[in-house]
Specification:
It is a single chain. The termini are far apart. A 7-stranded mixed beta sheet has the order 4-10-9-8-7-5-6, with helices on both faces. It is about 40% helix and about 15% strand. With about 425 residues, it is of the alpha/beta class.
Amino acid sequence: MATIEKSVVSEPRVIAGFDVERVREDFPVLRQTVNGKPLVYLDNAASSQVPQVVIDRGSVYLEDEHSNIHRGVHYLSQKATTAYEGAREKVKRFINAREAKECIFVRGATEGINLVMHGHGRKFITSGDEIIISAMEHHANIVPWQMLCEEKGARLRVIPMNDAGELLMDEYDALLSERTKFVAVTHISNALGTVNPIKQMIDQAHKYGVPVLIDGAQSAPHLAVDVQDLDCDFFAFSGHKMFAPTGSGVIYGKAALLEKMNPFQGGGDMIKSVTFEKTIYGDLPNKFEAGTPAIASQIGLGAAIDYLSSIDREQATAHEQELLRYATERITAIEGVRVIGTAREKTSVLSFVIDDIHPHDIGTILDQEGIAVRAGHHCAQPVMQRFNVPATARASFAFYNTKEEVDVLARTIEKVVEIFS
């Protein structure tokens, strides 16, 4: 076989301890200015930025390895397949799955949740059954289950929350019954930052033999996730929220459950054999990965996991928590500002409103100062209804953010209040 020269993929440098300025050097986008001001990127709950090593890895695939996977005996196809399946092994280690085949590549958490709804829900949920979700779910973990309930004549039950944005666990206990056939709940609220006691919730559901799906889109970038320790049945997360390209993500499922599920889509690469009389589906994970996947993006997800493994995750999480504490202190001291979501267990998200000022106006003025936040309902309209607000401004932090950026945010919020007063 001919030898082909390869571009060199830079390895993530191992960072001892946690030095935020060194970490920031790894993210080229943070060097730019917006409206003549240094970029202050505080929209990480929507999409995090991408380090240079992940950008480089994607370029190497496109320059030197680009080919379809699993189907070719030629050199490039085998190289691409090795890189793609290598990324799956990295995911397995990252979330401590029992087997790599339990990690199904999808475009993101939304597709992962829909895969489970179609593959498990449509097969096993029947009329009169109940599905439990929570009052703080992202639309991606509401709408699919509503669709299923409408189709099957099932009932959607909702765990309420208190004024701090914490789920009422006694109410959850009361909702669980012999009629409950599925539980789907977020690990961390994207709109409030609340960290839910999911291990306890999983244990309670399992007493009734009920499988549990965890929406981990906000937890995978910030917390150490061990799906075996949690004992969750399904766990969904998106690459673009954890420093990887868009179009990457994973739905983890216990093999025994995945084996019983129907495929989400039909097409190439998810079959063993096809005749006009019958199709025999492929083994895991191929059964759920029809067609040509987002190869470069999933390889990029593997590179992002390598990057996360190169830093001290515990110290990075501590840094994020200190940023949240400091930002909460600075912003709540500003007259007229109210934080939405004050749970005792929180991380990374600070949503707020200002008296008589629409969040879109807040976001516009912040952007003029180079500050990127999200203003809106954050695909969590029931949360907005619960707190009787049309929308919030949301600052969300990653480990590359700094206290100096929080100071810029606070000063600009003071400017917003002054302008509208």
